[in-house]
Specification:
Elements lengths: L3 E4 L2 E4 L10 H5 L2 E9 L2 E2 L2 H14 L8 H12 L6 E9 L16 E8 L8 E8 L14 H12 L4 E6 L2 E5 L3 E6 L2 E4 L10 H12 L4 E3 L4 H5 L3 E6 L3 E8 L2 E2 L5 H19 L4
Parallel strand pairs: 7-8, 7-14, 11-12
Antiparallel strand pairs: 1-2, 1-6, 3-4, 3-5, 5-6, 8-9, 10-11, 10-13, 13-14, 14-15
Helix pairs in contact: 5-7
Amino acid sequence: MKTTGYFNGEIGELSEMKIPLCDRSVFYGDAIYDAVLVLKGTPFALDLHLDRLYNSCKLAEIAFTMDREELKKEIARLISYCDSDAAMLYLQVTRGAAPRKHEYPENATPNLIMFISAQKLAPKDKRASLMSIEDLRFQYCNIKTTNLMPNVFAAQKATANGYTEALLNRKGRVTEAAHSSILMLKNGALVVPPLDELILPSITRAVIIKLCEENSIPVTVKEFTTDELKAADEIILCSTTKNILYVYNIDGEDVGGKDRALAEKLQGLLLDEVARQTGVRL
């Protein structure tokens, strides 16, 4: 399928769309974004994604005034151009167009940028390897901002060294991966790092936690180190487009593989929830 773009109500082929050169996302990355999995025209966990998008706007002080129902209508209009069974919907809200100046412009009108493109989903049995890299991002990681250069550097380094993803840590404390969340299983419980300014509130993580609570699987929220992660029974990499991947190697060391039954149960519960919301069995 062609990648279809959207800018403030205008829809067209993404490669032919134009935004103002003076948009603050161009100069400063002054924008927030989100990404949603769309299966046969139905977005998965859309309301959770929109909760995060509006909250990111609030935290970034971007005065995005389009209400949720209107935004949903525009999203549906864009999705109607999609002819792929699996697609990714990308949304970006910028502070707006203005002459280049660090301080916020007065009376700036936010711009809404979206696109939808075909998405190849990772197979259910795909496994992942991680490379430990120091987390050099700033302390606004809870805002889903387009300022992603440290993530880009980390992801590139991991890929160049033959790993699936970069495992980010701050003085040993695991935060997340370059573009995924890190969870672990230990002694029959799901263990997740606490949400703070160093970690993005992952939608897939939130769904997994809810499914655990509904199915009497214990959930522990605590900080953990890279060494503690390596000693986990199972290590899970998750995101909107990855769903759940099992980690088998960190920094060249074999890890996980000690509680595959619970890991597969979690994956099954997540895929059941995707099917319940979208009607598509992955």
